[in-house]
Structures are given as structure tokens and as C-alpha cells.
Amino acid sequence: MQEQELSLIRLFEEERPRVHCALERAVELLPAPVREIGAYVLLAGGKRLRPLLTLTASRLLGRDDPGLYRLCAVPEMIHAASLLHDDILDEADTRRGRPSAHTRFGLRPALLAGDAMLALADCEVTVFGKTEMVECVSDAMMRTVAGEAHEIALQGSCSHGEAEYVEVVTGKTGWLLRASCRLGALYAGADPRRVEALSDFGLYAGIAFQMVDDALDFADAAVTGKPCGGDLREGKFTPPIMRYAGELDEAGRAAFGEKFASGSFSDEEIGRIAADIRERGHDAAARSLADEYLHRAEACLALLPEGPELNVLREVIPFIRDREK
Ligand code: FPP
Ligand code: MG
């Protein structure tokens, strides 16, 4: 197990400078007025999971050349743009422990920088001349928007359950991880069964990724770089909150529902509920839900060829399951 962990970490370390170069190149292609904002969000670090999935998927299926770096910047641009827009929608002041782009640069420039990154991602994928790749990126963007819009429509509501939550996270996070894998597979010219297996792997891994993210919403802000309990403030009814609300008596649930709907919890209340959620293990239970999707992701790997890249994909599973930030 330790050896397996090492190969994922080694890939992260080895590839980070080359992925960073590809992102720097992409930043140069942004229109001058939004370039600084693009650099702020694209070159700030982060796990770079999406580009690494694209690289690994293509290599697994037999293609590795310099063009792959240009391609792997595409899902990262979409990811960065979606977080930039998400911070505007969520009115989030910080991201990764520093001011969010709109807080630092202003709402309108930040909005346009996100738009430019999305447009650039689109332009960049067309250079490979494969309609399926363009379709993959467009689908992912549409589904991401649909997931986010669905989440906004449900904001403040406590009346939906896990199934609807799964629909939301499939859209807002699953589809872009799916595209990250699928792009690599399409670039390699893989046979359709393998393209689909890798796409499904990405989709399930992405769903689980968001579920773990929603469990981490109750972790220490100093570790995650995001304020603890943000989903309570933002009225997002995630599994740890569903479990918490489910244990309240009728009067407690009514009072909770009112504050949740109006987003009027005080900082003290957020702190108390978050502590309760941790103590009762509702965040840990939400990780078990993620496990279900990680098992599905793992099953997809059976259809793919053995080799060092397959080991990297296997290691993505504990990486998502056990992450702490
Ligand atoms: C983070 O969720 C948000 C997303 C994963 C998707 C955001 C999507 C949009 C804003 C739609 C625009 C789409 C495109 C393609 C640009 P979160 O708020 O739960 O996570 P957080 O705690 O990291 O903010
Ligand atoms: Mg957010």
C-alpha cells in the first residue's frame, strides 16, 4: 500500500512543474485585462487532480507526447473558472486561505476572467481536431452549470433527500472529473469500451470527491483553508447536515429549518452545530456514502489494461477517501 501511495505522490511531484508551465502558457493566452486574475486563480497551486487524470488516462491507453500537457490544462481551466464563479454565487470571501478572486479584484473583472477561461478552454480543445473531445468539454460545462443551478434551486430547503443531493453533485463535480479522464482516453484514440470505463471511473470518483468535500466542510478551517460550516451558512443541505437535522425533535427541526432557509445562523450557532456534527460522526458517515461511489469507480478499472498508470488510478481512490483538505 505504501508503495502504491508513493507512485501517486511521485506523479504529483514530478508533473506539477510541467502542468504549471502548461497553465502559465494558458494564462498568456487570456485577454490582457483579465490575465492577472487568471494567473491568480490558475497558478495558485491546488491538487491538480484533473490534469493528472488526463495525463494518466492517455498514458494508460498508450499515448504520451508533449501535446498532452496542452490538453491537461483544459479541465483545470474549467475547474478554476467554475470555482471563481462559485465564490461569486456563494459570496465567499476566501478560497484556499486567501481572498477569493472577486474579493481581491472586484466582481465584474472576476466574472469576466472566469468567462474568458471557459472560452479559452473551449478554444484549446478544438486544436486537437476531434469532435468528440469538443463534445466532451461542452457536455461537462453544461452538466456542471446544471448541477450548480439545481443546487441553487434547492438552497435553504431541508425537504429533499440524498437522491437529489447525488444528482446535484453528479452535475457540479462529477462531470468535470469524468471529462478529465475521458479527454485523455479520447486523445489516446482508445476503443469505446475503454473510453467509457475511464469516463465512468472519473464520474464516480468526482461524485465521491464532492461528498468528501461536503464532509470536510466541518473540518478545521486552518487545515482546509475554507471557513468551517460554510454549507450551513449557504443553505446547502448536504449529507452531514441531513443527518444532523434528522436527529432533531420536531420543534428543533422546525427552528433549524427556519434559520437554514433564511441563512440566519449566528457564528456561535454554526460553531455549535459543526461541533455536534463532528461529535456525532455525521461527517464520517457522509464519507461512507462517498465510499459507495469509490467502489463503483474501482469496478470500472477492471476493464482497463494493467500497468503503472492503472496503479495511479487505483491510488486515486484512497486519495479521495482519506483526504483532509
Ligand atoms: C464548488 O462547490 C462548485 C463547483 C464544484 C461547481 C461550480 C459551478 C458553477 C459556478 C457553474 C459554472 C460552471 C462552469 C462550467 C464555469 P461548493 O461551493 O460546494 O464548494 P466550495 O466549498 O469549494 O466552494
Ligand atoms: Mg462554494
Radius of gyration: 20 Å
Order of helices and strands: HHHHEEHHHHHHHHHHHH
Shape: globular
- Main pleated sheet: 2 strands, antiparallel
Number of strands: 2
| Helix coverage percent | over 70%
CATH superfamily: Farnesyl Diphosphate Synthase
Strand order of the largest sheet: 1-2
Name every ligand kind in the structure.
Answer: farnesyl diphosphate, magnesium ion
Summed up, the domain count is 1
- Average pLDDT across residues? 95
CATH architecture: Orthogonal Bundle
CATH class identity: Mainly Alpha
The CATH topology annotation reads as: Farnesyl Diphosphate Synthase
Q: How many DSSP H or I helices?
A: 16
Brief rundown of the structure:
This protein is mostly helical. It has helices at residues 2-29, 32-42, 49-60, 67-89, 101-105, 107-126, 131-154, 162-187, 192-216, 221-224, 230-233, 239-246, 250-262, 267-279, 282-300, 308-322, and strands at residues 94-95, 98-99.
Q: Could you describe the 3D structure shown?
A:
The chain is mainly α. It has helices spanning 2-29, 32-42, 49-60, 67-89, 101-105, 107-126, 131-154, 162-187, 192-216, 221-224, 230-233, 239-246, 250-262, 267-279, 282-300, 308-322, and strands at 94-95, 98-99. It has a single domain, classed as Farnesyl Diphosphate Synthase, CATH 1.10.600. It is 77% helix and 1% strand. Helix 6 (107-126) packs antiparallel against helix 7 (131-154). Magnesium ion (MG) is lined by residues 86, 90, 92.
